[in-house]
Amino acid sequence: MTATAPLDRAPRARAAAPLARSGRWARVLRLEIRRSTVLWAIPLLAALFFFDTFRTADGFAPIWTVRSSVINTNMIEDFGPFAAGLAAWVGSREGRRRTGDLLTTTVRPAWVRHAAALGGTLFWLLLTFLLAVAALYVDTARQATWGGPPMWPVVVGVVEVTTFAVIGFAAGALVPGRFTAPLAAIATFLLAYVGFHAALQVRPGTPTYALLSPSTSVPLGDVGVFYHVAPDLAIAQVMFMGGICVALAGLLVLAPLFQVSYLRGFFSVAGRVSRWLCAAGVALLVAGVAAAATAFALTGTARLGVSGWDIPALHDAASDQPIPYTPDCAGTSFTVCLHPAFSPYLSSVATALQPVAAEVAGLPGAAVRAEQVTGGYGSVSLQGLRLPGASQVSDIAGTPPVYDFVSDNGLAPLWGTPAIAGGGFWQSGFQQEFLIAFAANPASFSQTAAQQAVITALMVAVGSPAPQFGEDMTNGQPTAGATPAQIAAAAQRFESLSPAARHAWLAANLPALRAGHITLAQLP
Amino acid sequence: MNIELSDLTRKFGRTTAVDRVTLDAEPGVLGLLGPNGAGKTSLLRMLATVLPPSSGTLRLLGRDPGAPAARKEIRRRLGYLPQNLGYYPSFTVVEFVEYFALLKEVPPHMVPKAVAAAVEKVDLGPKAKAKLRTLSGGMLRRVGIAQAIVNEPELLLFDEPTAGLDPEQRVAFRALIRGLGQTATVVVSTHLVEDVGAACTEVALMSDGRIVFRGTPAELTARGVGHGVGDAPLERGYTAVLAAARSAS
C-alpha cells in the first residue's frame, strides 16, 4: 500500500444534482446487471421453456389466442418460482453477506440499493421472458393463417414475473437467510398452483375471485376468432399484481423501520428513515393495497360474455361485436366452410365430413353445407363437460339445412395441430358430431341405444372406426338400458344392409329415431 | 473538531457496551485499544452512524448525526471498515469499490479515477479485475480499506484493519494511515499495540465501555515503566493501565 496524493477533486460541496443522482443509479444498476445471479439460471430457463412451454404450444392449434395462453400457464409455472427464488437470493444478499453495516454508512438510502439489485434481477428475467415470448410468437406467426399476436397475455405475464420477483425480493430483504430463496420459490410455486386450481373451479354463478389467477385452463379453440377477447380480466389481473408490487415496494422503502434493534417509539425510529421517505413508503403501501383490493372487488363481478369473462365496470360493449371475416370453403356437392383462422384444417374437415354427408344426402334434414360457428365461450370445459352458460352446439338448421358446427366439438376440443387433424381419430370425431346432429338431439348429453347403433353403422359404412359414446350414468345404468355389445350387434346388423335399404329405412323412421322412440329391436 | 462525544452511552438490553464516553478528535490518527468486549466496536459503529446512541451527545464533522440531512452529509465524508467485511463474491475488486463510490455519491465523472486511486493505494492494481471470491483474506481486507477511502473521507473508521495482513502489508498500511491522518481524522480500533505505536498520534484505551486512558503512545509507554507485563514497552503500558482500571472498579 502506498500513500499517494489525494485525488484532484473539488472539496465537499457535492450537492448532487438529480441528473448526477440518476447517473449514479444507472451505474449501480449496470453493475447489478453485469453481475446478476440470474445469468446462471438462463440456460435452465431456456431449457424449461423449450421442453415445456414451446412444445406444449406447438401441440395446440395455430390460433393466436390458444397459443398465447401458454404464456400465463406453462411459462409462468416455469419462470415464476425461478423469479421468486432468484430475487429472494439477491434480496437476502445484504443479510447473508453481512454488508448491512457497511452499506448503512453510505449516503444513498437502502431503497436505492434495493431498486438497483431488483432492477438487475428483473432485467435478465424479463429479457429472457420476452425473448421466449418472441420465439413462441415467431413460431405461431409461421403457422397461423389469421389474426395477430395478442399483447395482453404478454403484459399479464410480464407483470406476473415481476410480481413473483418482487415477492421473492421482499422476502429476501425482510427475512434474509440461506433458506429464504428456496422457500420463496416453493411458496410461489404453490401459490400459482393453488391459484390455477381455484381458477379452474370458477363457473357461472359461483364466486369469481379466483379469476385473479392468470393461470387457468387452455381456452377453447375459437376464442378471439369470432369475437375480440375482452381485456377486462387482464386489466384486473394487472391491477391486482401491480398493486401487490407497489405495496411490497412501499414495504421495502420502510424496511429500515423493521430492521432497527432499538425501539424508542415510532417517530424516533422513523427519523432514521427520513420523513419524506417514510411518507413515500406509506403512500406506496396504501396505494398498492388499494389497487389490489379494487381489482379483487372488480373480479368478483365478472360474468361470462361472448368471448370470455367480462367485468362490467371495465367492459367496453363495442368489443362484443363479431369480427368480420370471409370464410374459406371447399367442396362442391357438400361445401365445408371454415373461419380463415382454421384454414389449415379445411382439407381435413372436408375429408372427414364429405363421406358421411354423402351417406345421408337426400334424407329429410340432411345438411347440404357445413359452416363453422362460434361455440360460445365457457359452455364447454377442457374435459368436454357441458356447463351452464351461453352455449352453442353443433346442429343442423335452416332451409336448406346447413350443418353449423362449433369450433370445439366434444371429441376434438383443442383441434390440435393441422398435422394431428389428418389422423383417423380426429376425423372420426367430426363425423360422429355430424351424425349426432343428424340422427339425434345434439343438445342432449347422450344418445339412445338405437341412435348410437345407427351412427356407428353409418360411420363404419364410410370406412371409419366405430365411435365411442359416453355412458349415461345418471341412473347408474348403461345407455338406454342396452349393453355396448347389444348396441354393436345392432349396428353391425344395420350396417350390413345395402345403402339403398339403409337410406329407405332412415327416410321412413328419421323423425322417430331423432325423438328417441326407436328401440334396438326395431332396427332392421 | 471532527469527533465530539459527550457522555455517550450505548446499551444493549441490560448490557452497557459504551458507558458515558467523552472524547474529541482533530485530524490525525487515533488508536483505539482495549481488550475484547471493551466496547470498541460499539463505539466505532456509533461513530459510523450505524448505531444510534442510547444517551449522550455525538457530533461528527461538526454535525449531529441524529438529523437526517446532517447524517447524510456526514456519511458523504465518512469511510468505514467494519470488523467483519461483507462482500459480494461475484463482483471484481474494481466493481466492489465502484459500487461503494457510487453509493457514497462520488461524482459520476470522478468515479473511475477515484476507484483506480483507491485500488492503487492498497496495492491491488494487479488484482483489479479479479473476482472477490478468488482473493485471500488479506487481499479482501485491502479491498475493504479501498472502499473506505474511495471517497477521500474526512473521518475514517477502521475496525481491526490489519487483521489478516502480512507484515509487509501492515507496514504499508501504517504508512497509508499516517498519510491519511494528515488531512482526516482516522480512528483505528485494534488489538495490535505495535500498529498504534507505529502509526497513531494519539491513543485511547477502553475497558468495560469506558475510556480509561487518553494520550500519546509515548505517554502510554511511560505508564508501563516499572509496571505491567509484556514484551514491548507499549504493551507494558497497555497492561499497566488496564490493571489500574480494573483495580479501581
Molecular structure report:
The complex is a heterodimer of chains A (524) and B (249). Chain A is mostly helical and 524 residues long. Chain A folds into three domains: 301 residues, no CATH class; 93 residues, no CATH class; 73 residues, no CATH class. Helix content of chain A is 54%, strand content 5%. Chain A is built from 19 helices and seven strands. A five-stranded mixed β-sheet of chain A has the order 3-4-5-7-6, with helices on one face. In chain A, strand 3 and strand 4 form a beta hairpin. The longest helix of chain A has 34 residues. The termini of chain A are far apart. In chain A, 47% of the residues are buried. In chain B, helix 3 crosses helix 4. The two termini of chain B are 31 Å apart. In chain B, the strands form two sheets. In chain B, strands 5-6-7-3-8-9 form a six-stranded mixed β-sheet, sandwiched between helices. Chain B has a three-stranded antiparallel β-sheet with strand order 2-1-4, covered by helices on one side. With 249 residues, chain B is α/β, with parallel strands linked by helices. Chain B contains nine helices and nine strands. The model of chain B has no long low-confidence stretch (mean pLDDT 92). In chain B, strand 6, helix 6 and strand 7 form a beta-alpha-beta unit. Chain B is globular. At the A-B interface, helix 1 and helix 6 of A face helix 2, helix 3, helix 4, helix 5 and helix 6 of B.
